[in-house]
Amino acid sequence: MSSCGVIRLLGHAVYLATWVPRIPESDIQDLWDALESALNGKKASLETPLVIIFATKTE
């Protein structure tokens, strides 16, 4: 991530691949291609909500 908060598309795709459930990149490659084409080399800012869920186990 750069200092201005812009993530390159490849970096964002790699980041999303860490999420569960994982969606194979081959299933959404056409979406990444369309986004890259629509941006036409321009920078974009993508916001991702972050939620942390804490779970406890009782026996």
TrEMBL record:
This is Uncharacterized protein.
